[in-house]
Amino acid sequence: MTKNIQFIPGSDACIEGALYAGCDFFAGYPITPSSEVAEGLAAALPKRGGKFIQMEDEIASMACIIGAALAGKKVMTATSGPGFSLKQEGIGYACMAEVPCVVANIQRGGPSTGNPTHVAQGDTMQARWGSHGDHSIIAMTASNLQDVFKITVEAFNLAEKYRTPVVLMFDESTQHLREKVVIPEPGEIKVVDRIRTNIPVGEQYYPYLTDENGQRPMSDFGAGHRFHVTGLHHNIMGFPDVSPENVNALIHHLVDKIESKANEIAMYKEYYMDDAEYVIVAYGTTTRSALQAAEDYRNQFGIKVGVLELQVVWPFADEIVREKCAGAKAVIVAEMNMGQIVREVKRVVAEPEKVYFSNRVDNQIIKPADIKAAIRMITGKGV
Question: In the record, which residues are listed under signal peptide (predicted)?
Fold first, then answer.
């Protein structure tokens, strides 16, 4: 069988993943460096019977995909920097109303308009805490384009499974990089379809009632079932209910449905971790430099350095990170920000004083030499 092998940029790998997952609706507004995702889907979706719409701004784009998702579509939007900030109110609404959707945030330098054309990872905490109130979120990333494809498919799967927004935290470097990507045949990667109610039309349907399988099946607007959608605290019918008992149960559900599954949702990769005495924790493009640094120290100095790549950054996999770092003499967290995931690593490991930080915030990709400088400081070996 002839494989579908393409040499494409990261934006196209994301597009191919979305199409493979069944995305049939995109609404967005152009913003560097995410515009290529919108451009590609503008061309691809109509050919497949899908819909593309350019909205007047990022707020409207988020509202638009929420509406399309409630009408039964698998939906996506893409943005960066200031646009991601504008989407936060809509993301919070989707969390509260439990609307499955995928938001690709192609990270660039900030704050404010910052640097539209260079790399950064400064939105990591915003993905988790950007919207007000208590809720959980799923945020994912990747360091190579085959994984950009795979992670995008999984983002749609998790959105459908947990009825939640899922954020793709790709950074500028992965989106403008070109690599070989093998597009799997249909069925090679599992695709989760919309979980719809089997309640007959005319009978009572509860849109926010958990069934015996632990799921909350949906009904499409227009399918015949009557239900209400609101951003207010609501009961199982979707109507506002601000009683203390109901609010308590609802908030715990929004958090627990994701946080209690952190280990199940977690995706990560290990490199040279079997015998590692020093562990580099990285995510996104930073992983590539971390891997080179680890290999250099092993080959040149015989120092056993391993790399733990986080592909799901939220919910943070406390138990997995704690276990993988448990035997390390030191842990180096490499990020292109002022320290966001490093705080989480320090929070979960047994000896936070052994956690060190290597970073850049100058619009330049972090280099192996930057990470090796941290290893040299810790071990006293290196040049």
Answer: none
CATH architecture of 267-379: 3-Layer(aba) Sandwich (3.40)
Residues 198, 134: contact at Cβ < 8 Å? no
For the chain, how far is it from start to end, CA to CA, in angstroms? 49
Q: What is the residue extent of each domain of the chain? A: 4-183, 267-379
Backbone angles phi, psi at 75, to 5 degrees: -125, 155
Its pTM surpasses 0.90: yes
| CATH superfamily membership of 4-183 | Thiamin diphosphate (ThDP)-binding fold, Pyr/PP domains (3.40.50.970)
pLDDT tens-place string over residues 360-372: 999 999 999 999 9
The Cα 326–Cα 22 span in angstroms is: 40
Task: Annotate 77-91 with b (16+ C-beta within 10 A) or e (fewer).
Answer: bbbbbbbbbbbbbbb
Whose tokens are 């799923």? That residue is 138
